[in-house]
Amino acid sequence: MTRSAAKGPYVDPRVLKKIAGKKPMTTGVIKTWSRACQVSPEMVGFTFGVHNGRDHVEVLVTEDMVGHRLGEFSPTRKFIRHGGKMQKDLEVKQKEGEIAAAKAAKGATEAKK
User: Fold this and answer.
1) Total structural domains in the chain?
2) Residue range of the domain that includes 42
3) Best CA proximity match to 14, nearest among 36, 32, 38, 41
4) What is the per-residue pLDDT across 24-49, written as a single tens digit (0 to 9) for each?
5) Following DSSP, what letter does each residue of the chain receive, concatenated?
6) CATH code at position 50
7) Is the pTM of this model over 0.70?
8) Are residues 68 and 85 both part of a single domain?
9) Which one of 23, 52, 55, 77 is at 20 to 30 Å from 94 when CA atoms are compared?
């Protein structure tokens, strides 16, 4: 359920306090744990270190991000890959293709000499 329009967007006052009176590009990374904080137009240009549960992910705020939450740009889960026999076969074929391409390129450079 979205926040009511009468209340306005939730912007953490601590985040606003950290950026008050500072220049966007001269300020370093501003660390924050407030993932629920919405991006406001005053934040454009600043770099935030948004906590994802383990460390702070650097997020450079642009105009397109206004209205979104800071947590949307700092993923909390890391996708490794889907496994299984089929995946291994695909990786082997890809590696063989890369080796064949490298040999072909090497042969072409030796033929020019």
Assistant:
1) 2
2) 13-73
3) 32
4) 888 899 999 999 999 999 999 999 99
5) -PPPTTT-----HHHHHHHTT--TTTS-EEEE--TTPBP-GGGTT-EEEEE-SSSEEEEE--GGGTTSBGGGGS-SS------SHHHHHHHHHHHHHHHHHHHHHHHHHHHH-
6) 3.30.860.10
7) no
8) no
9) 77
